[in-house]
Every structure is written in structure tokens, then in C-alpha cells.
């Protein structure tokens, strides 16, 4: 226990001393840097506003473009790139979400290891070469993933829920696309997507590690300078709120029913963000100790797990309760989940539940910011979503000040029990 307390004190001290520095490169890239001493490591994350929401009608385009980064450059083939990173113990990755495309690097800070890994990383980002052989391979893997998703009731449910809650919004389609859209994407499409969105003004750079500010500025400039200046991607519209309830069932030959209940949610700049964050933690986001889990799992034994969450994106995402139960218990689970949400919305929680929720979040927050990787994630979020620089240092203070009445009011303002999406995937026959 003493060791744990000492560790928490050290973590809290490190968090308090975390100095987030911000600047913009001459090319227009936003840079967020935090120096952490002790380990000779550097983590870099590049967030481009170049994800699935920029696909237009070519669903899967952003995902394919991201997947081919690192497959070839103007000077190296895939094997040479892999060997260049492995020879210095560096780790490279690229991925694409609905809001952002992410490219990251972890490397040692000792010279010449740092120089070689950064040079390779910069080349991969600024001078990619898209080759038909690699595109064909990636499309084949994507098509297999699309077909595999059709065999998973969980995937079928997630896809259907997103299509309903987002409707005509760019968030509605699956990031990997459809069989038809992926088939039609060409090498030319990838090149155009890269040229339009992988530009300095559309980039947020996050750096965390044992380097100086001078080094950080040099590294950020090296990356930014190699890109076209370009222009910031167009901001997506807000998601239109649901006008009526929708009950949807998808027949699926499974022994259990996947039940998803929810509606339009919030984005990270929503005025009730912190209140809803704490409220959801208490209601359904804290695992087995949450109110929803207690009602569904502990009191009724209807599901192994039942949880809720808000997706937090640039445009407003969604709020969802999710569980998996026996087919013949799906109706009962649905009724109890909705009633539990209704009770939470209409009645202020008791003082002990509120304090337990605050303690749990505040106590765990220090651990969430204890590693370079976690700090990097937070810096990327702060930069990409235009959050204040004191987001980390002020987070727990904002949680402390929330009352039970604040939570009740925020849920009443947002949650409309009469306009929920109730989606089930399972066997009724």
C-alpha cells in the first residue's frame, strides 16, 4: 500500500509539472510538445484531418490511403522501409478513424538512431509512392474484412446503428467502406486524397519525450517542411438530432441478441462535456460498479456486461447503451435499460454515488497520464480538437465542482427518452 501511495504521489507530481508547449510551424502545422525526462525515448503522433469523414462518395478511400503509407517512397521499397525502422528499434504505425488519420513513431533519442528513424519517418510521410501491387493487396484484405464483419452480429449492429444515428452525415459509413466502393477506388484516387489532405495546414503534431524544445522545433519543422502547405479540410456539419424513436431489428442466426440503445450525442466542445462525462461514468461507464451494470447484470442476470458511452468527435457523436443477452430475454433487457436511463435522467443521484464517481475518475486520471504514450494521446486530442492547453491540469478540478443537480439537468437537456434508437441483432424465431 505504501508503494502504491508513493507511486501515485510521484505520478501526480509529474502530471502537475507537465508543461505543454504550443507553436505553429511556418508551413501552418500545429505543434504540441511535452518534455519528459528519464527515458531516452521520443513519441511522435501526426494527426491529419484526412479520415473517413473526408471520403465523400468513395467510402474507404481514407482508410486505403493510410494503409499504404509506409509501403513505398520515392527512394525505398516496403522491405527497405521496414528494415530501416527495425535496424534502430523504431516503431512506425498508421491508422485511420472517422475523424482523423494517425501516423506515429516511437524511437530512441540517441544519435544517430534518432536521425535515421526521423529521416525514414519523414520520407514515408512526405514522399510516399502509391503502387498498384500494394493497393491490390490492401483492397483484397479490406474486402475480406468487410465480408468477415457481415458474419459478426456485433459488427452488424455497430454498422447499422451508425447508419441510423448519423443518417446523411459523413460519419454514417464504415471507415473501411463497402464492397462496391472499395472495388472502384483507384491509384489516382489515393494520390489525390493524399495531395489534398496530407498537407501542413491540415496537420497536428504531438511530441512527447526526452528532447529539448529546440530539438522539438527542428523535428516538427523537418516534418512540416516536407509537406505541401495546402489548406485546412472543410469542417463537417453537426449531426442532426433524431426527430422520432426508431425500433430496428436485424434477424441474425445467433444464440444471443446484441442490443444497442441510444441517440445523438455531444462533441468535445459541448458546454456540458464534463458533467456528461461524470454522469456517464456513474451511469454506465465504470464497468461492473455502474448503475446500468448493477440493474442488468447483478439484479436481473440478463447480461454478462452492460455499459454506456459517448463517442467524442469533432461533430457530435452518439450516446449508446450496449449489452448482449439471450434471445428470449432481449425484450426484458431493453425495457430495464430504458427504465434505468429514464430514472437516471429524471432523478438526482445520491451523494455517495456522486462522490464515488468523482473519486474513481480523479484517482484514475493520474495513472492515465503517467506514460509517454498516454500523454501523447492527450496532446493529440488537445491539438486536433482545439481544446485549451490546461485541459489536463484543469480536468480533475472541473470534475470536483459538479453537483448531482448538474448531472440531472445535463441529461434532461440531452437525452430524449421518446426519441431513442432501439436496435437489436439476433434470432427471434
Kindly describe this structure:
The protein is of the alpha+beta class and 429 residues long. The chain folds into two domains: 18-225, Cytochrome Bc1 Complex, Chain A, domain 1; 246-426, Metalloenzyme, LuxS/M16 peptidase-like (Cytochrome Bc1 Complex, Chain A, domain 1, 2-Layer Sandwich). It is 47% helix and 17% strand. It is built from 16 helices and eleven strands. The protein has helices spanning 2-17, 61-68, 78-86, 113-126, 132-150, 153-166, 179-184, 187-197, 213-225, 273-285, 291-299, 330-346, 351-368, 372-384, 391-400, 404-414; strands spanning 20-24, 30-35, 41-48, 91-96, 101-108, 203-209, 246-251, 256-264, 306-310, 318-326, 421-426. The strands form two sheets. It has a six-stranded mixed beta sheet, sandwiched between helices. Strands 7-11-8-10-9 form a five-stranded mixed beta sheet, sandwiched between helices. Strand 9 and strand 10 (318-326) form a beta hairpin. Helix 2 (61-68) crosses helix 8, helix 10 crosses helix 16 and helix 11 packs antiparallel against helix 12 (330-346). The longest helix has 19 residues, at 132-150. The protein is globular and about 60 Å long. The termini are far apart. Mean pLDDT is 93; it is low at 1-16.
Amino acid at each position: 500500500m505504501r508503494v502504491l501511495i508513493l507511486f501515485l504521489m510521484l505520478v501526480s507530481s509529474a502530471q502537475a509539472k507537465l508543461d505543454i508547449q504550443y507553436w505553429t510551424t511556418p508551413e501552418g502545422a500545429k505543434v504540441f510538445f511535452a518534455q519528459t525526462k528519464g527515458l531516452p525515448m521520443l513519441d511522435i503522433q501526426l494527426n491529419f484531418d484526412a479520415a473517413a469523414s473526408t471520403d465523400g462518395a468513395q467510402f474507404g478511400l481514407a482508410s486505403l490511403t493510410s494503409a499504404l503509407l509506409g509501403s513505398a517512397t520515392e527512394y525505398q521499397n516496403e522491405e527497405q522501409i521496414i528494415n530501416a525502422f527495425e535496424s534502430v528499434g523504431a516503431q512506425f504505425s498508421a491508422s485511420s478513424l472517422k475523424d482523423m488519420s494517425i501516423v506515429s513513431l516511437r524511437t530512441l533519442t540517441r544519435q544517430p538512431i534518432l536521425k535515421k528513424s526521423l529521416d525514414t519517418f519523414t520520407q514515408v510521410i512526405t514522399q510516399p509512392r502509391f503502387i498498384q501491387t500494394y493497393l491490390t493487396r490492401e483492397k483484397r484484405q479490406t474486402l475480406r474484412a468487410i465480408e468477415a464483419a457481415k458474419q459478426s452480429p456485433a459488427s452488424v449492429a455497430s454498422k447499422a446503428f451508425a447508419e441510423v444515428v448519423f443518417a446523411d452525415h459523413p460519419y454514417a459509413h464504415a471507415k473501411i467502406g463497402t464492397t462496391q466502393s472499395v472495388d472502384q477506388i483507384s491509384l489516382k484516387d489515393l494520390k489525390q486524397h493524399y495531395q489534398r489532405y496530407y498537407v501542413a495546414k491540415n496537420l497536428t503534431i504531438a511530441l512527447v519525450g526526452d528532447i529539448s524544445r529546440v530539438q522539438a522545433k527542428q523535428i516538427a519543422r523537418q516534418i512540416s517542411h516536407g509537406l505541401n502547405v495546402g489548406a485546412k479540410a472543410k469542417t463537417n456539419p453537426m449531426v442532426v438530432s433524431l426527430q422520432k424513436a426508431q425500433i430496428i431489428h436485424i434477424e441474425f442466426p445467433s444464440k444471443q441478441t446484441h442490443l444497442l440503445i441510444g441517440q445523438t450525442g455531444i462533441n468535445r466542445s459541448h458546454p456540458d462535456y464534463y458533467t456528461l462525462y461524470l454522469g456517464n461514468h456513474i451511469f454506465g461507464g465504470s464497468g461492473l460498479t455502474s448503475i446500468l451494470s448493477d440493474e442488468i447484470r447483478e439484479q436481473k442476470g440478463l447480461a454478462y456486461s452492460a455499459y454506456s458511452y459517448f463517442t467524442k468527435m469533432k461533430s457530435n457523436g452518439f450516446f449508446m447503451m450496449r449489452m448482449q443477452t439471450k434471445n428470449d430475454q432481449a425484450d426484458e433487457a431493453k425495457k430495464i435499460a430504458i427504465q434505468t436511463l429514464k430514472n437516471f435522467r429524471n432523478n438526482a443521484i445520491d451523494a455517495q454515488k456522486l462522490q464515488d464517481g468523482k473519486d474513481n475518475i480523479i484517482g484514475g486520471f493520474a495513472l492515465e497520464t503517467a506514460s509517454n504514450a498516454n500523454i501523447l494521446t492527450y496532446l493529440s486530442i488537445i491539438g486536433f480538437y482545439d481544446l485549451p492547453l490546461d485541459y489536463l491540469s484543469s480536468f480533475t478540478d472541473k470534475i470536483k465542482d459538479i453537483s448531482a443537480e448538474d448531472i440531472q439537468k445535463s441529461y434532461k437537456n440531452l437525452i430524449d427518452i421518446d426519441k431513442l434508437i432501439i436496435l437489436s441483432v439476433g434470432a427471434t424465431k
